Amino acid sequence: MEQLEGFVNPKYPNRVCNLKRSIYGLKQASMQWNKRFDDETKKFGFTQNRDEPCVYIKASGSNITFLILYVDDILIMGNSIPMLQSVKTYLGKCFAMKDLGEAAYILGIKIYRDRSKLLIGLCQSAYIEKILKRYCMENSKRGSIPMHEKLKLSKSQGASTPAEMKRMQNVSYASAVGSIMYTVRCTRPDVAFA
After folding, report:
1. Mean of pLDDT over the chain
2. Secondary structure (3-state) at 123
3. Domain extents for the chain?
4. Whether the predicted pLDDT of 158 surpasses 80
5. What is the pLDDT of residues 94-149, one digit of tens each?
6. Which of helix, strand or coil describes residue 54?
7. Which of 119, 141, 120, 123 is nearest to 132 (CA)?
8. Which sign does the torsion angle of CA 126, 131, 132, 134 carry?
9. Is the pLDDT of residue 87 over 90?
10. Which residues are within 8 A (CB) of 105 and not within 5 positions of it... i.e. 6 or more apart?
């Protein structure tokens, strides 16, 4: 790191500073944070999922706890309240964190529960509405999912008036498909067949 203004030694103006720890915002900081988090969770007995490195699992007898990390957001879930409390207490000693209570949203995905029926589900309807609005499609007709096998698409179904054609030229097709793919990967794999 370059010497800070006002702290430059006139004898050695070209020297640089050697940092003893990473600084928030620098490109190495996120890797250092992740490495520290990984070390601490493994010390507590979690094992990292081989296929999803941001998912950690701890099983103890019939108790199982999942810890999911996304940048600096952590979702903890399991079947034992005392185990969840001990995980939160341990992480609270290792990191400055706050407990936001039972999760309702994570990464724009709504988490809903019906404890009486022992159901849990995920919903991205708010995200989907946002996509529709972004690409001016809030009033579009709904289609079947999966798409009918015998459905034929033709050019005549597309934009027909000069105004519609002009509007479609301003739509970033790749960006729209990418937005939809996020939904496909998270909660709606059926949309891949639409």
Report:
1. 85
2. strand
3. 27-101, 127-193
4. no
5. 988 888 888 898 888 999 889 899 899 999 988 989 988 988 888 887 777 777 77
6. coil
7. 141
8. positive
9. yes
10. 111
**52 and 65 Cβ atoms separated by less than 8 Å:** no
The answer to whether the beta carbons of residues 123 and 187 sit under 8 Å apart is yes
8 Å CB contact between 138 and 129 = yes
Query: What letters, b where the CB count within 10 A reaches 16 and e where it falls short, cover 50-59?
Result: eeeeebbebe
Rounded to an integer, what distance in angstroms lies between the CA atom of residue 35 and that of residue 147?
A: 44
| Angle in degrees, CA 137, 110, 83, rounded to 5 | 165
Phi, psi at 78, each rounded to 5° = -175, -175
Least Cα distance to 184 among 137, 128, 130 occurs for 128
Contact 37, 68 (CB under 8 A): no
Does position 17 have pLDDT exceeding 80, yes or no? no
Q: Quick check: 122 and 187 in contact, CB under 8 A?
A: yes
What residue type is 38 in one-letter code? D
pTM of the model: 0.67
Looking up tokens 């957001």, which residue turns up?
A: 73
- Over residues 6-35, the mean pLDDT reads 75
